[in-house]
Amino acid sequence: MTALPTARGLFRQLLRARAVAFRGDQTALNASREEIRKHFQESAHLEPEEARKKIEEGVEAESFIRLHVVQAQVNDKGNYEMSIEPQHVDRAVPGENTIESPDGGGGCSSGKT
């Protein structure tokens, strides 16, 4: 098992991960910063074992943000486009890299059609 970061180190890692994931989206950047800060403030007075569990959860959250969060933006045609980076592709499951709209209509694909 790898060593856990300190609470301060985890806080910084989460802020960096959200800065990359939400680059260019000030609304998402602000909301995610406030959410991260809220969770840390709520956990400030935990006992050591409870704090350790929260740090483990935070490590998982940072990894999820870094590896699985991809923002889509509307292009000139009204379709959504995503910038898939290497960390997203390496972990993709074949056949599961297409996002469809809830109504079953055309979504967007990160790969070839």
What does this structure look like?
The chain is built from 4 helices and 4 strands; from the N terminus they run αααββαββ. The chain is mainly α and 113 residues long. It has helices spanning 7-21, 26-42, 48-68, 86-89; strands at 72-74, 80-82, 98-99, 108-109. The strands form 2 sheets. A two-stranded antiparallel ribbon has the order 1-2. Strands 3-4 form a two-stranded antiparallel sheet. Strand 3 and strand 4 (108-109) form a beta hairpin. It folds into 2 domains: 7-68, no CATH class; 72-109, no CATH class. Helix content is 50%, strand content 9%. Mean pLDDT is 82; it is low at 106-113. This is Mitochondrial zinc maintenance protein 1, mitochondrial. InterPro entries: Complex1_LYR_LYRM7, MZM1/LYRM7. Residues 86-113 are annotated as: Disordered. Residues 103-113 have a biased composition (Gly residues). GO terms for molecular function: protein folding chaperone.
